[in-house]
Amino acid sequence: MKIIKTSILALFFLLPFVVADLRVNFYNATCPQAESIIRQVVQKRFATDSSITGALLRMHFHDCFVRGCDASILIDSTKKKSSEKSAGPNLTVRGYELIDEIKKSLEAACPSTVSCADIVTLATRDSVVLAGGPNYAAPTGRRDGLVSNPTDVNLPGPSFSVSQALRSFNVKGMTLNDMVTLLGAHTVGFAHCNFFQDRLSNFQGSGSPDPSMDPALVSKLSTVCAASNNPTTFLDQNTSSTFDNQFYNQILLKRGVLQIDQELASDTSTAGIVSGFASNGVRFSQSFATAMLKMGSLQVLVGNAGEIRKNCRAFNPAKSKN
């Protein structure tokens, strides 16, 4: 089976990455089965929908790059107050029902113990492993946030230049190498046509396709996007369901779907990193594990800060606030 084959290829990294108040096996005493429960639910979903890896990677990124990794993206909007879910960049984020399923199982085993923020982090890691990516020991101990505002959502967009995207990463303390590495998650991602349609026929108002895109890919995607209802396409047109370094090989061949992806291969500041990852899958896997641990530590709430939500979609009643 593909799942077994790709997971055998996954490398295990126990990295010397320490975050204050986060630690590996945080739940060993309070909920020793927590990580196995999360893994089992993710495995069940992956067996029928391997695209869940890309969905969880996107959710994790969209959470951590707003208010830090505090599960604020999971909060549902109400009639009285909108949440991050209603912000434009988050309208196509998916996988929330999987987080709900995991939380339900954890609440049955260990009530009010495992945070939704840690569930997102661990579920994402487990889905990456199932797709053939690196297995890394993820520190836990995050608490869930008490704020979720759509106006806080300011994420790097698909049409950003490398320098524009880098500013967004630098604000979060992330480096150029971190950025190129994390965008490699697109190896298992997909995008709706509205995120790249301008590149197919009217790039930057030129009336022509983006010259940096392979004409064969322009033709293929034009056919895909001619369908109604804003269809999707894989960002890695080669090994779409496998977490590997082929994304970088694809953009070197001018087969990047998103503008920011393609610019990674042509910008002088990032071209060398792209070439290095394209030629060395192990180097990419190691860099990805490190970058995910770094991103997963952004502005985390620990100790007595925040809360442990009973329902990942809603603040606990006693502590909810604007």
From TrEMBL:
Q: Which Gene3D superfamilies does this UniProt record tie to the protein?
A: 1.10.520.10, Peroxidase, domain 2
GO annotation terms (biological process)? hydrogen peroxide catabolic process; response to oxidative stress
Coiled-coil segments on the chain, per record: none
Its cellular-component GO annotations read: extracellular region
The record ties this protein, via PROSITE patterns, to:
PEROXIDASE_1 (PS00435), PEROXIDASE_2 (PS00436), PEROXIDASE_4 (PS50873)
Cofactor: binding details? Binds 1 heme b (iron(II)-protoporphyrin IX) group per subunit. Binds 2 calcium ions per subunit.
Recorded GO molecular functions are:
heme binding; lactoperoxidase activity; metal ion binding
Site annotation Transition state stabilizer: residues: 58
Q: Where is the Plant heme peroxidase family profile domain?
A: 21-316
Among PANTHER family, the record links this protein to:
PEROXIDASE, PTHR31517
Q: What is this protein called?
A: Peroxidase
What is the organism field in this record? Malus domestica
What broad taxonomic lineage does this protein's source fall under? Eukaryota, Viridiplantae, Streptophyta, Embryophyta, Tracheophyta
